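User: Predict the structure for this protein chain, please.
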Amino acid sequence: MATERELNKRIKSIKNISQVTSALAAVSASKASRAQKQVEATRNYAEKAFEILQNLASQPGVGQSMHPLLHCRDEIKNTGFILITGDRGLCGSYNSNMVAYAQQFLSKLETPAQLITVGRKGQDLMIRRGYDVVATFDGLPDPPTLLDLTPVAQLATEEYMIGTFDQVFIAYTDYINLVTRQPAIKQLLPLRPLDYEGWAVSELISGADFAGASGRTYTYEPDPVSLLDTVVPRFTQLQVFQSYLEALASEHSARMVAMNNATDNAAELVEILTLDRNKARQTSITNEILDIVGGAEALSNG
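Assistant: Here is the predicted structure, written as structure tokens:
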């Protein structure tokens, strides 16, 4: 059994750690709230952007000159895969769950995949497991802007345009609420998926008809084809940006929950160690009393 001095040191150490975890939980709660607001604002914008893209693509005369990012390849030979994780740990199983989910998806692909990782944790884990990581982005600011994620979208778009990728998927953690998160993998390119249920904004565009549900014809200045050349790449950037916001909000909420749990566990451990310390103290006092009594009895007998 540990001595009273050793238990006191352990109690002091655990209390110091609990102060750190409590502070991290408070900071993460603030960041998660801010990220949640940014996610909700981006969802509304993404819905309107997709409506514009949908209507532009359905205009008369556009079909003959459809933007390359809207075309589905007849044969899929190579796949691009964007994996979004965190740069830091202390967030429970957030990073490991996302990597495991992505690994399960990649193992079922019938084509080779090249990875673009966003976040240091995903990069390290995927390289360690033997995957082909062709590019990585880390150290992004918090909160991010659209310009911060533009290089990721541009790389995926350029590789798709030149034929390096025949399809591109993006993997991130979908933010539901402060205590609920879910790994998700969505189709990023081409921008005409057969099933809209797999998009990063699935709750906004699920069941939408790309051909145009209203059947109305609008007048665009300049022509719809020129607008598509501008809108389509920007919508790809918006998809990547929103996916990162979802992942960032999930990371902050996961860290908040993990640090709260760590603080609670530290308090329970301190309580247990305090009882052990009291027992050790009582045992020490009892032994000292026995020594005194034994010594007094020996002197009286002598």
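The CA atoms of residues 58 and 84 lie 32 Å apart.
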